[in-house]
Amino acid sequence: MNEHGVPQQIENPFATRHVRPGALPYLFSAGENTDELVKRLRNNGWWGQIIGPHGSGKSALLASLAPAIERAGRKTFLVELHDRQRRLPSGFHAGARTNDPLVVIVDGYEQLGRLQRFRLKRFCRRGGLGLLASAHKAAGLPELFQTSANLDVVQQLVERLQAESATKVGAEEVAERFARHGGNVREILFDLYDLYEARRRHA
Amino acid sequence: MTDSLAIIRFDGNGRVYGAGDTLSGEYRFNGVLPAQIKAVEVSVLWYSEGKGDEDMAVHEFWRSGPDEGERIDPSRPAQFTTTLPNCPLSYEGLIVKIRWCVRVRAILHRGKDVVAQKSFRLGGVPAVEVSAS
Amino acid sequence: MARNFRYYGKKRGDRRTGSRMLGSVGEMIFYAAFLLLGCVSGAMLFSFIAIPQWRVNNEFVRSTCVVLEKRINETADDDGPQYRPEFRIRYEIDEVTYLAWTYDIHMSHSGSRENAQQILARFAVTEDPNDPIDYYCWYDPTSPEKAVLVRGTSWWIWLVFIVPASFVLIGGGGLIYSVLRWGKSAERRAAMVQHAIQRDLFDANGKTTREFPNVPNGVDITNSPGTTLAYRLPIGASPAWKLLVVLLACVLWNGIVSVFVVIAVGGHLEGHPDWGLSVFLLPFMAVGIALVVFLVRQLMVTTGVGPTTIEISDHPLLPGKQYELLVSQSGRLRVNSLCVSLVCNEQATYRQGTDTRRETRLVHRREIYRREGFEVGRGLPFEARCNLTAPEAAMHSFKADHNEIQWQVVVAGNAAGWGDFQRSFPVILRPAAGNNNT
């Protein structure tokens, strides 16, 4: 409480604004980094796919890769497809037409229907554009990376998020939630939000 | 530019405001030259936080600067004042929180905007307890 | 830090990365294309349809003619055969004789042969040159060889402009919107949206909306008068919908399974049993029977427990004020317990990637009324009056695109033989205007 007797506004480090893709850099296991992936992507002619289960960090990895692709000399064009969105958004073709080297990034590629996927590939091939997609299973593009659950990485992520918080969540609590949610990082972080909220209110 | 920052101060610093109260204060910029400024925007807004996607709404908005035909000295304090609305009140919920703030933004001809915000409370809704009564 | 080109400006935590410029350019190109298409097609339609008709009605000169021949011009089209009446006319202008096949200025086809025949029947062919049958015709003074037998305005002319007009509206509106948003900060765009909402001329509750932004106006509650108290609260989710869903599932499942069951049974009766099919069908039949049992139970609960209604003395609720409730429970049942509570839930919706996640959390519950061990007779609903005091310092109702704070009156009961049931009635808790809650 402040001197006026009302509750302080304390940030929960696990609120969506802190954990959504792009808010934090993607944390790799040892031996991998974004520049290595970009090198691999370039060797594949700037075409690739990132596969992984729900909540394993595909969107976060795309958000981290985009600036690395830019540094490598290619512009990026991001398309986010949500649940049941079977078509590319209107204006996509107009927006993606450019004389500059470009990589189209599609988050949620498997949402597209077969015909839409065919048209997208053809559009990118004809325009000399790169295509980087995220999906839950193989989508017919050269495999770039497979995201997967890793407890150490999740522990690191949690440490970064709560670095400046007075209230902390312990490593064993993270491990318990990791096991309960089968490595789904999104669900783990939502769960930690509730734990943090309960803990700081009783502190 | 790494030294640029914006400073906001409220009159009656830190007090809780009620619906219909006057929120006033001043802002200034350090490390920003007048020639660098394209425009200055001041907003009184609320935003949500929690487990949902963020919502935001602007209650009051001012824009000034050379592209509005005004000369600005960013190092000199500039005033703002507004009458606060009835709602939404500041709220510390479990999965939904509502926060009010004043946000100032200096839009420069080159380089990144200089942005700062200062929070305040509207209303005195108590924080929600973790277990409901 | 290098910037990305993003189609959708995306907020990353508390900083905004990426340039919106190319996204805005793409958007503007898209709308400009719509606008151009609308303008070009509109201009073409105007010049080929509207202008000629205007010239016939205002510039063509009247003369007389005779009809020498008439016919129906038939063409094939994707929609089928198309017909057009045509007349060969002879007319004189300044001692020069002209011959022309004509009818109206558009010479358009239609799908009806009967219509064409009727038009043909209106004009008689001159058989005897010494006894001509004269008709009026109108010729173009700038090119006299062009003439028509009829003139006037066709109403369908204006319908064809709907399509180019819609393209112009979409393209023009989108382009203006994109230009206005060009290079604007998030706060400035949000402020523009707020001003647009406040100028909404069609919002009947405009004053309320402006006075209490993001608080639902509750018009669907105050539109429903009660029989005893001022308003009847609408139910949040009618049990009839749940019943309908179960019924559809039951009919669909059992309908499909029954086809195979008939085949299997028929085989047994004819002495050629298909044991593979029979065994395979067993689990499906079990599910079908379970669905029927569930449906019957839901039906009995819904009709047996009967509707619950709540009337309230005033609405919306204001902090600290007291309201009278009239709770009515129908049916024919023995109620073990009935509890009426004021409840508040937070609801947060999060979309990321292909996942949409909605979470609801209870943050306030206060029991208003409780009664145990009573009977409800058929045709004689149980009624109870109680008082509800709106919390003094609780958060008001709130609704935004992704986050909500919902207040409800909840009736929860347990009936002998029927089990638990619950009905929810949304209410609006408004903040006190100009009230300092501190």
Quick tags:
heterotrimer; B: mainly beta; Immunoglobulin-like; 0% helix; elongated; C: 438 residues; alpha+beta; 3 domains; five-stranded antiparallel β-sheet
Strand content of chain C: 25-35%
Helix segment tally of chain B:
0
Q: Can you write the helix and strand succession of chain C as a string?
A: EEEHEEEHEEHHHHHEHHEEEEEEEE
CATH architecture of the largest domain in chain C: Sandwich
Overall 3D shape of chain B: elongated
Q: What's the helix count of chain C? A: 9
- Output the structural class of chain C: alpha+beta
Dominant shape of chain C = elongated
Structural class of chain B: mainly beta
How many individual domains of chain C?
3
Order of SSEs of chain B, N→C? Answer: EEEEEEEE
Largest interface: B-C, 44 and 46 residues
Unreliable stretches of chain B: none
Strand count, sense and barrel status of the largest sheet of chain B are: 5 strands, antiparallel
Q: According to CATH, what is the topology of chain B? A: Immunoglobulin-like
Give the number of DSSP strands of chain C: 17
Oligomerization: heterotrimer
Summed over residues and divided by their number, the pLDDT of chain C gives a mean of 83
Number of strands of chain B: 8
Strand order of the largest sheet of chain C: 6-5-4-7-8
Rg of chain C, alpha carbons = 37 Å
List the helices and strands and how they pair.
The complex is a heterotrimer of chains A (203), B (133) and C (438).
Chain A: H1 16-19, H2 34-43, E1 47-51, H3 58-71, E2 75-80, H4 92-96, E3 102-107, H5 114-127, E4 130-135, E5 143-146, H6 151-161, H7 171-180, H8 185-202
Parallel strand pairs in A: 1-4, 1-5, 2-3, 3-4
Chain B: E1 5-10, E2 22-30, E3 37-50, E4 56-64, E5 78-83, E6 91-92, E7 96-108, E8 114-120
Antiparallel strand pairs in B: 1-2, 2-5, 3-4, 3-7, 6-7, 7-8
Chain C: E1 5-6, E2 11-12, E3 15-16, H1 21-58, E4 61-75, E5 82-93, E6 96-102, H2 113-122, E7 134-140, E8 143-148, H3 156-159, H4 162-181, H5 186-198, H6 206-211, H7 219-222, E9 231-232, H8 239-269, H9 275-305, E10 308-312, E11 322-329, E12 333-352, E13 355-376, E14 382-389, E15 398-399, E16 403-415, E17 419-427
Antiparallel strand pairs in C: 2-3, 4-5, 4-7, 5-6, 7-8, 9-10, 10-11, 11-14, 12-13, 12-16, 15-16, 16-17
